[in-house]
Amino acid sequence: MSPSLLELRDVGKVFGDTVALEPTTIAVDEGSFVAIVGPSGCGKSTLFNVIAGLLAPDSGAVIMNGTTVTRTTGHVGYMLQKDLLVPWRTVQDNITMAARL
Would the pTM of this model clear 0.85, i.e. be above it? Predict the structure, then answer.
């Protein structure tokens, strides 16, 4: 059996005294559709930021295609719940803006 496309092994995140993400384990196979749902403040955004490499986990490991992710790779992206577009810019300018910052 091939390794999962994405695997989280006891991934957790703490900010000071606040546990933002309890140790979480999940495996996502290629072609799967996964929804992460929960109330405000339960750790969904923290989970996505750890998967994307924008935050380092305080415990556990993020594994993509069999390789442990320790930093941003540029191979992961996700859509935020708010569009955050700059309305006076073109679509192309909005897409490429991050590369210019």
Answer: no
